[in-house]
Every structure is written in structure tokens, then in C-alpha cells.
Input
Amino acid sequence: MKSYNSKCIGCGIVLNDDESSLGYVPNYVQGKTKYCQRCFNIINYQKLCNDNLNVDELIKNFNDISFEGKIHIFHILDVLNLDQTIIEKLLNYKDKLTFVVNRIDCLPKTYNAKVTNEYIVKTLEDYGFSNPQIIYTSKNNNSSIKRLFKAVSNVSKRKEKAIFVGHTNVGKSSLINALKKLNYQTEELTVSPFVNTTLNLKKNKIGNIEIIDTPGLPTTSNILNYLSPSDVKKVTNFKNNRPVNFFLNPEQSIMLEGLGYFTYVAGEQANITFYMSNELHLERVKEINAERNLTQLIKNKTKINYVDAPDTKFREYEFRLYSSNKNNLSIDGLGLISLNKGMKIIRIKVRENVGVNLNKYAII
Output
């Protein structure tokens, strides 16, 4: 394999001429070739090939990252999946850490910002991050990007380097591209709805400021790992999104296309809000029909296609709720379900290995 003396500006991998390796380029031209073939296909055709991707190696690379020295960590979190995107390893560096809670545009326009902040702070404190510094952002919210840039600029003034860290698909590269755009620079990082887009450490210059983008920490609990590329784009499209509300009685279910279903088991009639892509078709059915409907959807592949079909296995989770409070249920990579007071027992059935979490605090 011939390794060229340059890196892909999209994912940070070293460019080479080995078709079986990450970083492959078919016709390398010094000074002109900027992207590997994988990033080129993602950017231009929204096609992803992870055939040569070694997840264990990505995890090792992440664990090998040094946070010692003059480093300030910006830990990117997904507001709809807060608990499952917290990296507890960073507890050792909490004195040099700022949390960036991303995708705030996915929340309802009328949400109570004070209450949301209070419960996010409580969540982080429960993980051991006392007095957390938090910035709320969205790549689509210019004011929040300006706040983030100010924080990064302050880090640079202290002669420290800013490093962006987070799980896969929380939006690290998107935020760096938004910072570049704010400063009238070309958006270079490969951004897509797919997991594991950034593969190596990538230094980014914005004026005199340097930001280091890191590979997303892989996790097997993210539902995006198991979906076809077209369905990944469908599930992650939150642009101009609106929450979907249902009034449910016990023994009613909501079909999540071929992704599974949610069932209300016991409690009073209650309002349930789904913060998921509006491209998903959510349908109310009787509980007794939910399993049959899911089987038909998977068999016919009319809605969602799994990469391991027809051997896809599902798992059911049951939760007893704090009926005197609102509750939030997160599905890793899919979104959040807000459950009003009065609900006692719920079930949810999703693909095996997908993370489902009843959050201790309801942020919305």
C-alpha cells in the first residue's frame, strides 16, 4: 500500500492507494486531492461504505486520546438522548470541560428553558459533573453558534486548544462547519447522518483559532448502526421538525413504522409526545394488533430496512413510571418520547441491542 503524505480533510484519515483500506483514493493528485473515496461518496451521493471500518480500532483510538496539557474539552451531547451520550471517562477532566448540548432546535418552540436547564444540570451532576458549564447549540441557530465561538475564542486566548468530543452522530463536525461558516470559511468536514463519519483526529483552523475534531465514540446501542443508508437519512431528518402528539388510553400502541412500537399499559388517559423525525409514519393501533403489524412491516420491507434482515431480532422493555411526574424515554439514535403525568406502566419494543433509557429527569 502506498500512503500519500496528506490526510482527507473530511474525516482525517491518511490518503492511500489501497482499495481495501480506509483513506483510499483512485487517482491521487498532490495538492488537489482533498477527500478520500469514502468521504467523496458521502458528500456527493450520500452513500456510505463501512466495509473496512474496524469499530474496535475506533474505540481504541478514542481511548488513546490524551486530554492532558493545555486542552479544553467541549463535550457534545444530544438533547434528545442526554443520558446515553454522556462519556463518563471525562469525569477525570471535569475541571477543563464544557458541555455543548446540541440540537436544541428539536425541542418545541414553547419549551420552558429554565426547567430544561435545571434538569439537564441535575442529570450531569448525578453523573458526577458538579457545577457543569453548559452551552446550548444548534447548527441552524446562528445566535447559539456565536455563543459557542465566543467560548472557543476564550479558550484560545488562554493559550489552550479546543477539542470537540462526543459519541457518534451527536453533531461535532456539523458544529465545527457552522463555526467555519460563521467566519466566512469553507465548510470542509464530512457531515452526514451516518455513524462513524470522522475517523481520525482532525485539526481545524478558524482564523487564529484551532479546533480539534475527534472520531465519534462508537456504540452498539445506536439504532443507526442497523439501518440501511436511506433509512438512516429518514430517521435523522429533523429539519423543520414538529413534535407529534397522541392522547392514549391503556391497551393502545403507537407503531414506529418497522422500528418497533410503543404500548401504553396502565394509567389514566394521557398525552404522549414523540420527538422523532417527521418522515417517520407514527400510527395508533390496538395493543393486540401491534405485534402482527410489526411482523408484516419487517416481512414486506415496506417501511424500514435493516442491514441484517431477515434475521432482525427485537426486544421488549417494560417501565413503571413516576406517575406523579412527567417522564422522558430516550431511544438511542431515534429520539425522545415525553410522557405526561398519570401514566403508570409502558412497554416499548425495538430492535435488539438498541439502547432504551427512562431518564431520571424529564427535560421536556
In short: The mean pLDDT is 86.
